[in-house]
């Protein structure tokens, strides 16, 4: 019998770092011990929230924390000095550090991070300069603060390795596409893997027969068509910019629009570094569009409230999102030939935005989706909840997705394999 091991699952977003602590032994599913988050890195002061068990223990500002590295160091210090968490009292207690890496290129499964994988991940940052940086900075921080931990990368793109060739191919010069690896990759895959498993279990069907249309609506938003438990299509593309609009991202626009939005499209943006080049076009479309540009805030809860009070800009932002979402759902409905086990809402907006869910489902009534207003208004705390009307043709569900839990689950399953993988 092996002793219990500690898995740290790290989810570095563009503006936050979320870390969940799990204990696992060979026989068991990982058990969550604590969750800690530092949010608001791009809108200081950063804020820390800490939950252990079912208790909310801390919620306070941490003005000294300014970067992803700072955040990790602060989080590690906090966890190891919490006497209520004796399982993790020293950095060496961590066996595995799991990292959510948004862009994994051709990787279709998790990889232990050695010098070679680290270098490959750095190269991939060229394809996703705004997304992989935070995760790599934290890999460095773990390497220096927790030298005995095994670092493993879990890719947001891996779940989409099953997308068929015609769907992932852009209509561009195939030689250049091959050389520069230009294709649809898709993201939010850890979330979609979690959703597919949790929903299949909840509605009592085998995962490999689950046909779902899933919506991960957070500060980045995407849709995914899941057939037989696998990704058949998704709305994000080469980078997380494509598809649905988000908090600060435009989503799909006519590609030539960028030249009308700024005359500096091809120039380097001031946020470029010596190692990492970001064009003004990337900067503008990723950081200066979406809800922020349309309404002045990135908080969809606030946007919903203001729309109810009659704010026209906020109402338009909601209408735009609903319009794009129903377009994807309709397309995916056809891809699944109408054989749909459920439409699933997830991510911060999907889980908390009752008004948005209702607006989307109402527009989909011709396909057989119908909302149960009472259930939609108060979906409760279960991981998966049905919010569709009884007797409707298709189910509608809300899933509290958890990317850290998905990493921990996969890590525990492959623990021995990962330990034996060569590391430099
Ligand atoms: N009551 C609410 N109604 C609608 N959206 C909400 C509500 N509360 C929070 N949100 C949205 O959830 C988003 C965060 O979602 P989350 O999935 O946690 O984000 P991230 O992509 O950063 O992981 C916030 O940016 C906010 O727009
Ligand atoms: C891939 C992506 O957009 O991630 P997030 O929603 O965390 O920004
Ligand atoms: Mg997210």
TrEMBL record:
<comment type="pathway">
    <text>Metabolic intermediate biosynthesis; acetyl-CoA biosynthesis; acetyl-CoA from acetate: step 1/2.</text>
</comment>
<dbReference type="GO" id="GO:0006083">
    <property type="term" value="P:acetate metabolic process"/>
</dbReference>
<feature type="binding site">
    <location>
        <position position="11"/>
    </location>
    <ligand>
        <name>Mg(2+)</name>
    </ligand>
</feature>
<dbReference type="Pfam" id="PF00871">
    <property type="entry name" value="Acetate_kinase"/>
</dbReference>
<keyword id="KW-0460">Magnesium</keyword>
<feature type="site" description="Transition state stabilizer">
    <location>
        <position position="188"/>
    </location>
</feature>
<feature type="site" description="Transition state stabilizer">
    <location>
        <position position="249"/>
    </location>
</feature>
<feature type="binding site">
    <location>
        <position position="18"/>
    </location>
    <ligand>
        <name>ATP</name>
    </ligand>
</feature>
<dbReference type="GO" id="GO:0006085">
    <property type="term" value="P:acetyl-CoA biosynthetic process"/>
</dbReference>
<protein>
    <recommendedName>
        <fullName>Probable acetate kinase</fullName>
        <ecNumber>2.7.2.1</ecNumber>
    </recommendedName>
</protein>
<dbReference type="InterPro" id="IPR043129">
    <property type="entry name" value="ATPase_NBD"/>
</dbReference>
<keyword id="KW-0479">Metal-binding</keyword>
<dbReference type="InterPro" id="IPR023865">
    <property type="entry name" value="Aliphatic_acid_kinase_CS"/>
</dbReference>
<keyword id="KW-0067">ATP-binding</keyword>
<keyword id="KW-0418">Kinase</keyword>
<feature type="active site" description="Proton donor/acceptor">
    <location>
        <position position="156"/>
    </location>
</feature>
<comment type="similarity">
    <text>Belongs to the acetokinase family.</text>
</comment>
<dbReference type="InterPro" id="IPR004372">
    <property type="entry name" value="Ac/propionate_kinase"/>
</dbReference>
<dbReference type="GO" id="GO:0005524">
    <property type="term" value="F:ATP binding"/>
</dbReference>
<feature type="binding site">
    <location>
        <begin position="216"/>
        <end position="220"/>
    </location>
    <ligand>
        <name>ATP</name>
    </ligand>
</feature>
<dbReference type="GO" id="GO:0000287">
    <property type="term" value="F:magnesium ion binding"/>
</dbReference>
<keyword id="KW-0547">Nucleotide-binding</keyword>
<dbReference type="GO" id="GO:0008776">
    <property type="term" value="F:acetate kinase activity"/>
</dbReference>
<dbReference type="InterPro" id="IPR000890">
    <property type="entry name" value="Aliphatic_acid_kin_short-chain"/>
</dbReference>
<feature type="binding site">
    <location>
        <position position="403"/>
    </location>
    <ligand>
        <name>Mg(2+)</name>
    </ligand>
</feature>
<feature type="binding site">
    <location>
        <position position="100"/>
    </location>
    <ligand>
        <name>substrate</name>
    </ligand>
</feature>
<keyword id="KW-0808">Transferase</keyword>
């Amino acid at each position: 019998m092996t002793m219990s091991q500690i898995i740290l699952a790290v989810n570095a977003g563009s503006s936050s770092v979320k870390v969940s602590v799990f204990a696992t032994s060979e026989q068991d599913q990982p058990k969550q011990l604590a969750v800690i988050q530092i949010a608001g890195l791009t809108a200081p002061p950063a804020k820390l929230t800490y939950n252990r068990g079912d208790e909310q223990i801390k919620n306070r500002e941490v003005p000294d924390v300014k970067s992803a590295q700072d955040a990790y160091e602060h989080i590690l210090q906090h966890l190891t000095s919490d006497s209520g968490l004796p399982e993790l009292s020293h950095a060496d207690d961590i066996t595995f550090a799991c990292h959510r890496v948004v862009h994994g290129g051709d990787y279709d499964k998790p990889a232990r991070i050695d010098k070679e994988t680290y270098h490959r991940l750095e190269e991939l940052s060229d394809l996703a300069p705004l997304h992989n940086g935070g995760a790599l900075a934290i890999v460095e921080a773990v390497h220096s603060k927790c030298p005995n931990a095994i670092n493993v990368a879990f890719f947001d793109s891996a779940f989409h390795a099953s997308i068929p060739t015609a769907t992932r191919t852009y209509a561009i010069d195939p030689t250049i596409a091959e050389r520069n690896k230009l294709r649809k990759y898709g993201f939010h895959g850890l979330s979609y893997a979690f959703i597919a498993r949790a929903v299949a279990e909840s509605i009592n069907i085998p995962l490999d027969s689950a046909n779902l249309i899933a919506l991960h609506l957070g500060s980045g938003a995407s849709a995914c068509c899941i057939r037989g438990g696998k990704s058949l299509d998704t709305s994000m593309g080469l980078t997380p910019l494509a598809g649905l609009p988000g908090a600060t991202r435009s989503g799909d626009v006519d590609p030539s629009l960028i030249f009308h939005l700024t005359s500096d499209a091809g120039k380097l943006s001031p946020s470029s570094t010596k190692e990492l080049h970001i064009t003004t076009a990337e900067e503008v479309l990723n950081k200066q569009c979406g809800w922020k540009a349309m309404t002045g805030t990135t908080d969809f809860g606030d946007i919903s409230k203001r729309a109810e009070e009659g704010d026209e800009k906020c109402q338009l932002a909601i209408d735009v999102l609903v319009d794009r979402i129903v377009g994807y759902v309709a397309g995916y409905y056809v891809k699944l030939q109408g054989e749909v086990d459920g439409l699933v809402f997830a991510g911060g907006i999907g889980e908390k935005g009752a008004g948005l869910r209702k607006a989307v489902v109402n527009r989909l009534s011709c396909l057989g989706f119908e909302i149960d207003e009472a259930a939609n208004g108060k979906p409760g705390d279960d991981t998966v909840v049905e919010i569709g009307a009884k007797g409707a043709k298709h189910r509608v569900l809300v899933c509290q997705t958890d990317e850290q839990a998905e990493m921990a689950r996969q890590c525990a399953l492959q623990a021995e394999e990962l330990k034996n993988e060569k590391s430099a």
